[in-house]
Specification:
Residues 110-132, 450-472 are annotated as: Disordered. It is built from eight helices and 30 strands. The chain has 510 residues and is an alpha/beta fold.
């Protein structure tokens, strides 16, 4: 598989944000295969330092370390929290359960091999580079606390083995997976699995996408960072409806992921994170209907997720114990803000961590409560304070970061917030592409390239007509160029024409 050579890629369907006249693409005769690149970085063993022997709370951006000599401003580093047996025992994940005989072996192996890592830019603080302690200023807050009682944390530099593509966008497309529609095979799975899969990319986006008939929807995999998925819909999935590994509609597994204004139907897990997802990640202003399973963290200690104004059939944060392959505690340090669910939901907090629930609408129940865990922390506002509580925590924080002004609030609400939609320039608004146009254009190109005899047999009159049209176009283009040059000169911007009459005024700027 080749390497990307460019840092800006935009697969753009040129469509109206209303999803009318959408560019349509059909995935036909494809199996359920996914391509994942290997882990793209190498740990520099001689540039590893331990975190200071003190308790580090969740949300920290100023990290005390034992040696800052190997770090410089702007370095990309990994902060790793290594789990230990006494931590596993405290979280209650080392005890075998009757429902699964090999639970103990599975659970300990998974938890001991896991680590919470944050890929951050750093700002080393301190002047002595001979191994003295100091602080690293991180651009991403830690989404897991660190306690020396359960083993040391470490920080290290790394080198990438391969180039990481950045600024990759997929937008304005309707994607269809070609499945077997025969009544004898209603749950065909020999077709497209994920409609969009992003991995080992940074600063990427998926916008205005509609997917039909895929097994699952849109996923930002563990190697992704700074990914926005917005204004997209995952519809009419075709697969076994209740089997594991299917119908994951919007899935975040990387860091700094954002799903906003999205919709799904007939899924299993509408808005989901995967195993040991690091975060922080956000789902905001999104809705799923008719799901047959829950939204929320799915397995193995995912940290730092905000669900903000999200509705789903079911919504849980809990100890999943032996479920699946031994999924254990699904999530820690989560916030659910003004969320809602149709059926009974359950929210728990694991030992040593907290999940916060603010303004939940729905019924709380003890649905299949087979695994121990404390209740989450509920922070419901008093009735007299409801009118003073922001509608959205995420958008309120964005307004605060932009200065907290009225203009910032209006911009967030109308342009990027709940009422916002992607805005496209006028040239793009005038060009809509449909599947019929694509097919016609493709047919014309194929016919032209494979019919040399037709070109050879063209009569002289047609050749002359084409030549006359080409000459007229060139003449008009030359006139347009001359007109633009004249306008530029009259405006006083002669240096834009690369003229020599400026006598080398290289310092002229405008």
């Amino acid at each position: 598989m080749g390497q990307f050579k460019h840092d800006f890629i935009n697969l753009h369907g040129l469509q109206d944000p209303s999803f009318q006249s959408t560019a349509e693409y059909l995935a036909a005769n494809v199996g359920s295969r996914e391509l994942y690149p290997k882990d793209p970085y190498i740990v520099l063993d001689d540039e590893v330092t331990e975190v200071a022997d003190e308790y580090i709370p969740v949300g920290t951006t100023r990290l005390p370390v034992k040696d800052i000599s190997n770090f410089r401003v702007g370095d990309q580093v990994v902060v790793e929290r290594q789990s230990s047996k006494n931590w596993i025992q405290r979280t209650g994940q080392a005890q075998p359960l009757e429902a699964e005989e090999d639970f103990e072996e599975i659970q300990i192996t998974l938890q001991e091999d896991s680590s919470s890592s944050n890929d951050n830019s750093t700002n080393g603080e301190g002047t002595d580079t001979n191994g003295t302690p100091g602080f690293l200023h991180l651009d991403i807050p830690l989404v897991m606390n660190m306690d020396p009682v359960y083993g040391p944390g470490i920080v290290y530099n790394f080198e990438r083995e391969t180039h990481i593509p950045t600024d990759v966008g997929i937008e304005n497309l309707a994607l269809y997976s070609h499945y077997d529609p025969s009544p004898s095979n209603p749950f065909d799975e020999h077709h497209g699995w994920y409609a969009v899969l992003i991995d080992h990319c940074e600063n990427c986006w998926v916008a205005n996408i509609k997917t039909h008939h895929f097994v699952s929807g849109i996923k930002a995999a563990p190697g992704s960072k700074h990914v926005t998925i917005q204004d997209s819909e995952v519809l009419t999935p075709v697969s076994l409806p209740k089997q594991g590994g299917r119908r994951y509609m919007f899935m975040l597994q990387g860091q700094m992921g954002l799903v906003k204004r999205c919709f799904s139907e007939d899924g299993r897990h509408d808005f989901i994170t995967g195993s040991k997802t690091l975060g922080p990640n956000v789902f905001v202003d999104s809705e799923g209907v008719r799901a047959n399973n829950d939204a929320g963290p799915h397995d193995r200690w995912t940290t730092g997720t905000l669900y903000d104004n999200v509705h789903s059939t079911n919504l849980n944060i809990r100890n999943r114990g032996w479920m699946g392959s031994g999924q254990g505690w699904a999530g820690a340090f989560h916030v659910l803000y003004h969320t809602s669910a149709d059926v009974s939901a359950m929210f728990q907090s694991p030992p040593g961590a907290t999940n916060w629930i603010v303004g939940f609408e729905g019924t709380l129940g003890d649905k299949t409560v087979e695994f121990d865990g404390d209740d989450a922390t509920f922070l419901d506002p008093e009735p007299n304070d409801i009118g003073h509580i922001p509608r959205s925590l995420y958008w309120s924080q964005l307004v605060a970061r932009m200065g907290g002004t009225q203009s910032a609030a209006e911009y967030v609400e109308k342009i990027v917030g709940a009422a916002g939609k992607s805005q496209y320039s006028e040239p793009l608004k005038r060009k809509f592409v449909t599947m019929d146009e694509i097919v016609l254009a493709d047919g014309a190109i194929r016919s032209s390239s494979s019919s040399s005899r037709l070109e050879a047999d063209m009569d002289l009159e047609e050749d002359e007509e084409m030549d006359e049209e080409a000459e007229a176009s060139i003449a008009q283009l030359q006139k347009d160029i001359q007109r633009m040059e004249l306008e530029i000169k009259e405006a006083g911007y002669k240096h834009l024409l690369n003229d020599n009459d400026d006598e080398g005024n290289e310092e002229d700027t405008w």
